[in-house]
């Protein structure tokens, strides 16, 4: 009896909702992220963040009284699958906007689909190629490698270093960042005296570091890299007692880096990181304080896992999209696109976003905090 | 007039491809269709290698990678038209298959599988590591071949997905036609003979090594063309196309549908392309269910899925 009651109730509800549908048409948003596969350490927190935010928004009444209908697919990091799912989101699910593209590869595969269909697409991947040149419907939230380089060089300049050594990973991240750094280093009047590289699975970087140590005049060392390489560099660096300031990239801006390298070896290492990483250290006067704190607490409560920068990218993409839908007042893709481009002063976890027709990222260098590792913890040094 | 089983098979395939769009609820299904045809083409090539000649290769994605990157690189570096680049890729794949095939086809069974696997991994590593040429793991854009534009100029205006559905469908029918012709040709008979018993085949004067190599080269060209089609319709390519998982996928499709029959293998490609799209509802269990389906088919239908249909088709023709 209980079952049939429930069924009847559900039926009535469905009927009511069905009739109500024309008046309160749901806003359909799509996502394709790499929840599984080699990029799952990026995609998993992104997917969790998006699902959590959609639930929270719908519980709070949706956007302008309209609920969000959220469709998410897992492309497993495969660009071909990402393109298929993007096509599905556009043609079959008929979403008004797409969030996704965990990696640069999947983003580049989704982009032509979104551009063809004239549907706004907010990418969660790092490469500068995504927004340079600017394409009308493509946006992104993570800062670029070039900005990380700029932040580091600014700090070096402030400390009076003009001659540095570089040791870069030869993986995708390291190679790309090395290229970006070398492209802008001249603007800061800094010179690279030694330019070494190492393979992504190398277990010892002593020879490269010895070369750098042997170069006269090197004042600081920069290590663009990702994964375990930078931790090994940091340990070898301490063992060789090189004694010069060491800079790491935003690619290792996480607590696990300190664990891997060891607090003693990592002492004094500087790197650019987001506010999310040092949520506990932000003063209440910080513009990002409230946003970062709210996201961190909600995420950790919902998933029981520590918050990550990557989930933060998804958080910001969703915030930008919701803000744009609110302002455009409807669910017209072209109006949402225009509204996204007009995003101004939106505070996210990675920084304050102000987009324009020529800037589809909308972050400036203040998005990064220069952090120093002290006694096994982070400290903001600005 | 009596139609041969080959003609019936081809007509059936062409009719299904032509009529299916009537039932498509949205144009997304054109995309799924064209993926089935692209995979089907690669799998048709593997039918020649695995089904006809009885040789196994776990490295055919390597040839798909060569075909795909030919379409990406040749227009940029040599100013070649992307469609011509696909032909270049096919020729290149054929030559490489010939060079690689000569030594590794001396191996049998597991050893052949491992050697071909090594080749596939090698290709994907080169594509990923030579970032200066190939764009590295982030991949590179592929120029539009302009075929759709040419059709538009003569008054046939198709959307992107519709065009690639029709075009890949056409190529698949041609590919299937060639493969079915081969089956009944002297070469096909020789391949099937050496599949049955190499010793017996040699005893009746069949150049076993030569025919194996022929099958390997032909299947490599099929894989290469399928890679080119994928690159051209995606307009973007990454080294994943040459990845180990893609090779496994190809062999799985072939074996699932029935390695001995072209239509069976294309059916296998269709099922394994559609299944992940259906299973998105059970996202977390997708891999699990895929594995389960595979295991059940392997245990209960060793000849491949729907073997009775394949068998009946074959019986009808002979």
UniProtKB/TrEMBL annotation, chain A:
Domain of life: Bacteria
BP GO annotations: amino acid transport
Protein name: ABC transporter substrate-binding protein
Organism (species): Metarhizobium album
Entry keywords, A to Z: Amino-acid transport, Signal, Transport
Pfam (any one): Peripla_BP_6
Record family assignment: Belongs to the leucine-binding protein family.
Signal peptide: 1-25
UniProtKB/TrEMBL annotation, chain B:
Membrane association type: Multi-pass membrane protein
GO molecular function: branched-chain amino acid transmembrane transporter activity
Compartments in which it is found: Cell membrane
Superkingdom as given in the UniProt entry: Bacteria
Membrane-spanning ranges: 7-24, 30-51, 58-77, 83-101, 110-128, 163-183, 255-275, 287-305
Keywords: Cell membrane, Membrane, Transmembrane, Transmembrane helix
Cellular component annotations (GO), alphabetically ordered: plasma membrane
Oxidoreductase as UniProt keyword: no
Coiled coil: none
InterPro entries: ABC_transp_permease, LivM-like
PANTHER family associated with the record: HIGH-AFFINITY BRANCHED-CHAIN AMINO ACID TRANSPORT PROTEIN BRAE (PTHR30482:SF10), HIGH-AFFINITY BRANCHED-CHAIN AMINO ACID TRANSPORT SYSTEM PERMEASE (PTHR30482)
Full protein name: Branched-chain amino acid ABC transporter permease
